[in-house]
Structures are given as C-alpha cells and as structure tokens.
Amino acid sequence: MAKNRRARNGANQPNHNKLLEQIGRLDGNPELPETAAAAVPTKEALDAMPDDAKNKFEERLAALDEALSELVSKREDLNRRLAEAKQTETDLAAARADHEQKQTQLAERESQLNEREQDIELRELDARNGFLEQQRDALKTLRDEIRRLEAERDQVIVRTEQEEREARERIDAMRAAQRDALQADKDALAQDRQALEEERQELALEHKRLEQVRRNQEGIERQTRQIFEEEHQREIGELKRRIDQARRNADVDAKTIEEQRQALEAVADLNRLLEHHGFADAEALLKQLEALRSENRQLREGQRHRSQDDLEAENEALRERCDDYEQRLEDQAQQINALKNEVGTRRLGVLEKQTLEQEKRVLEQHKRALDSAVTDLEQRLDDLTTRQQGRSAFEALTKMDKDLVGGVPVDEVPALDVLAQELRQRIAGALDAPLYYPEQVIRLFLGGLAMSQLHILQGISGTGKTSLALAFAKAVGGHCTEVPVQAGWRDRDDLLGHFNAFERRFYERECLQAIYRAGTEPFKDRVNIVLLDEMNLSHPEQYFAELLSALEMPAAQRRLVLTERALPDPPLLMHADGCDGRKLGLPDNLWFIGTANEDETTKGFADKTFDRAHVMELREKDEPFKFEQHVNSLPYSFASLQRQFAKAQKQHRGEVEAGLLALQKSQFTRLLETEFGLGWGNRLERQALRFVPVVMAAGGSFGEGMDHLLSTRLFRAGKVTGRFDVVLDTLKELETALIEAWPQFDANHDPETCLDRLVREIKRKEQQG
C-alpha cells in the first residue's frame, strides 16, 4: 500500500508544477510566488500524509487548477474583446476619414457654386450693356437654380452635421460601453485574483497545518521508536541474562535430576524388589539379606556342585531385567525434554504478549493524532462546502443575466437579392484580409440558413471556411463564438461542460455560454453562430449527438438537459416553460457551423449527420473585385430575416413543387431507385422547399439550388459515387438521363456539380477497368 501511495504522489507532482506555472503566468511573473511555492507540499510531505487527507488535498488542487484554467480563459476573452475594441476604433477612424472626404466634397460643391455665381454676375454685366431684356428669363432661371443649390447645400450641411453628431454619439456610447465592459472584466478579474489569493492563503495554512501534523507524527514515531528500541534492548538483555541463567540452572537441574533420578530409580527398584519379594521394609530386607547371606554361603558351598546350564539361565534373566531398566530410563528422558520445551514456549508467549501490548499503546497514540488531523480537515472541508453552496451553480450564465439586459436597436433585412449583393461586399471587407467569394456561394449560404441550423463547410485548407462564418457574423451585426474541437472529445460534456456534484457547480464551456447568450435580450433578435473549428477531428455523432437530436425536434420542444434535478437559483432562461430549472431551450436564431478537412487526422461523417446538415464545399476563391468598406450602424434583425425567408418560400413554392414533380417522374429518378436504391424521402423534399426558393429569391435559379442539393445529398461518396457494386455503363446511363431530364424544369442552368462528380466517377471506373 505504501508503494502505491508513493506512485500516486509521484504521478500528481506534475499537476502541482502545472498549477504553479499557471499561477505564475496569471500574475505575469515567470518566477513562482512565494506563497504558492510554500503552499504546495513536497513529495516527502505528501508521502507522509494519510490517504484520506492526501486525497482531499489532491481534489482541492484539481478544483483550484480548473478555477485557474477558467480564469486564464476569461483573461484570453478579455484580450479578445480588447482586440475587438481596437478594431472598432479602426472602423471609427475609417468612418471619420469618410466623413472628412464628404466634407471635402461639400467644399468642392461650394466652390462650384461660387464659380457659377461669378458666371451669373458676368452675365448680368453683359445684360446691362444691352442684353438685359434678352437674358432676363435666363437670369431668373439661373437664380432659381442658385436658390435650389443653396437650399440643397444647406440640407447637405445640416445632414452632414447630424450624421457627424450621431457618429460622435455612437462613438461615445460605444467607448463608454467598452469602458464599462472592460472595467467590469477588470473588476471580475480582480475578484478572481482576490479569490485565488485567498485560496492560496488557505492552501498555505492547510499545508502548514498538515506539515505540523506530519512533524507531530514524525516526533511521535521517533519517540515511539526510541522507547520501543530502549525497551527492546532492555528486554533483549534481560532475556539473554535469563537465558544464560536458565541454561546454567538447566545444567545444574539436569545433573540434580539425573542424580535424583538415579537415586529414585535405585529406591524404586529397591521398593519394587522388596514388594516383589514380600518385604515390608528395609529391616525385613536386612534380616532376609542376612538370611540370604547365610543361605548364600550355604549355596556357595553347594554351588560348586551345580551345573553350568543353571548359571547361564540365571545370567540371561539378569540381562533382561537390565534392558528393561534402560528402556524405562529413556522414557523418563523424553518426558523431561517435553517439559523443557513447554516451559520455553510459554516464556516466548509471554514475551510476545508484552510486545503486542507495547505496540498497541503506540498505535493508539498514533490513531489519536490522526483522528485529530482528520477532524480538523473535515471541519475545513465543511466550511469550504458551506461557502461553495452560497454560489450559483451556473456562474457564467447567471452573470449574463446581470450584464446582458435591455434590447438593442436592429435594422430590417432588405430583399434577398439586395441582401446577397450587400453581403458579398460586406464580407469582402469584414476581416483584416479581403475575402472574395463568388455570388453563388453567398446565395447557397443564405439558402442553407433557411434550410438547417447545422452547416458543414468542407474544402482544403486556405479556402476560407472559417473566414466565411466569421465574416458573415460581422457583416450582419451578429455574434460568433469559436469552439476548437479536440481529437479526444467523446460526449456532450466536452462540448457543453459538466456538473461537479462535489462543488455543486456546473462548468459552462463556450458552446453552452453561446447557446444561452443567443436567448438573452440584447441577442435574441440577432444572428448567433457557434463555429465548430475542425469539427471532424472527433466523431460529431458522439459529442454532438444530443444537439443533433434536438435540432430535429419542433422549435417549441428543443431542450438540452443540463442536470438530473433542478438546482437552487438557476439562470433566468432555465425558468422558461418546460425547462423545470434543469433544462435550457435551443433558440431559433442560433446556427452551428462546422469546418471539416479531409486527412489522416480526421473522422468521416455519418449519413445521419450529412442528411440533417447544409453541406458546402468551398474551392478556390473568386477573382478580386472592388468593394467599399461598410460601417454597420445597426445589426440586422433575425425576425426580419426569417420573414424574408418565409416570403421567398411562399413566392416560389409553386415553381419548386412543379420542378420536383417533373424531376421525380423522369428516367433519372427511376434509375436512382432501380440501380442505386435511392429515392425521394420526406426530409429531402422538405429541405428542397426551404432551400431552393431562398436561392431563387437571392438571384439564383431552380437549377442552381437543386444542383447543389442533389450533389450533396445523392452524389456524395457512398450514394451514387464511390461504390464498387455499380458498373460503368450504369453511371453513363445515369449521366445521359440527368442531361435529358434537366431542361424540363431549368433550361438556363446545367447541373454542373452533379455532372462533375459523375464524370470524375466515370473516369475512375475507366482507369480501374
């Protein structure tokens, strides 16, 4: 167990170093603060900690690490907002330059008016010299023109002054809002730093307390070891002395026992002999012995006359008696050895009992010290838990409720064809580098907004996938949140965040904050975008599964379940109908736009993702064109954008339905069903009725919209192309059927994308065959 504890402590040491590095970076100091360095225990101190205290200490460090990461993220967000403020100042400077240019033009107009006045005065002089009557009518006309031009000049001056005053007011308001936002962020950062400093101090105090416990524990252990060693040495010496004395006593006792045994045996033999021969005591024996001696003398006298055989028999009997006595002696020796072994075993048992009692006293002292430390840590933990319960579980979302209040003025969206032209111009100059997208890309992008809230932008690196989403959000005055997808994402917690039951806090990630922001008062009538950068680095069907299902639900039923049960004081939007304080609605004015590359580091999209999304493949950019820098005074209204989509869908619905019916009755559709197993589903028909009318209203045609929709739905790899079970002749037959069927509903736009993919698939088959 001690070995495993050391291994865990060694594994956690890099986390401590990482924590110190983050603290150092946050304070702008490459050297670690003395308080933080003092607050982090050494590896030896961690080894000496009890398991429970060490685990709680590591959990506190992990929580502090997450808090620091969130603080760093806030600071990066503050830097980003500062960069946006600088960009706004740059835009304002450009607007100021434009205003100065208008003033220069006005001065030129005034100069022209002065020149015309001088010309009129010259003509009046000519009239006085004889042309008065002839030029009177012309002079009247010129004076009327002068008055009209002067009135126009006055109006231009008034309008220019009004625009300049409004621009200054907007600039002042924006600067004040930015100053307030920056001050609020600075205050929040200062509070976070203060909280972090308090955590450092608490951590330092806790470390000192743990260090004191460790020193007390070491002192107790040293005293215990010293006492135990001293008693052990005394006991060893006493045992050695007792063993030597016991050995000496045992030798003396052995000799005494041997002598007594011999004496006892002699007495026992004598008694047995006496009893055997019927003698009551030794005196009778002596009398008998005397008689026997007398008889012996007589026998000796008669022995001379006895035979040799009688002597041998008597000798054998005596030998048997001797053997019997030797066997009895061995039995007595074994009994004595057994008694000695039993005495030694009992002595060792007594010593072990004394040792265990001593160890028990030491362990009881150690337990009392640890119980005191654990009680102190539990009290500390209870205090921290009580303080944590006073905070909101959704800190970032609750902060939005306080900061994002009050609506903002919005502008009506113009007609879709006008909007497409304006967006192309605005997108071109929205970012630092010019972006030149073809008109068709803008039309298809608008159609995709009307069709689905999930977009997938494919293409090689550098084709402007990320830039299109960022520039569009800026062009319409919306908000775009960038979310870099990581290769290790596995579930929705990686995208939205997770709830920490120990801290009773939900760690809200950027995507969840963007979803909530889209429903707040200042953003609910604006376009909001979540940009999933490198969307296919991980499987979207795993981390985006819940959102993918929610987007398929009716608008009133789109809910994200954030917690299993309602938490105290949830954010305002989680009080809405059907949310129950634990769910968050998915707003209609929010689009998820994912960029996707195709290489060895990325994952493939499943059919269910492709079928629900608007897919665009961006290729090379358009030729550069001249554009004007636009300064958006007001963001476009999301509600008015939806009205324009609905108007286009109603206006062109009949034409689209007729085109779909003609396409379904063609040989092209029959070939798709019989040879490829592909048919028209309800989802594809619904998407066509949403997508194609908007493309048409934005300046495109039915053929342009259907060509894109069919190419991304039916002509992608695994559907018509990229299949090994389709022969070359079938592909050529499908190509002919498509070319023949297309003019029935659009003679002006060929299915270029579908034919391009078919031709490439036919060439691939020809090369393989």
UniProtKB/TrEMBL annotation:
Residue ranges, compositional bias (Basic and acidic residues): 96-115
Record-linked Gene3D superfamilies: P-loop containing nucleotide triphosphate hydrolases
Domain ATPase dynein-related AAA: 456-554
Residues in coiled coil: none
Region (Disordered): 1-32, 85-115
Protein name: ATPase dynein-related AAA domain-containing protein
Species in which this protein is naturally found: Marichromatium gracile (Chromatium gracile)
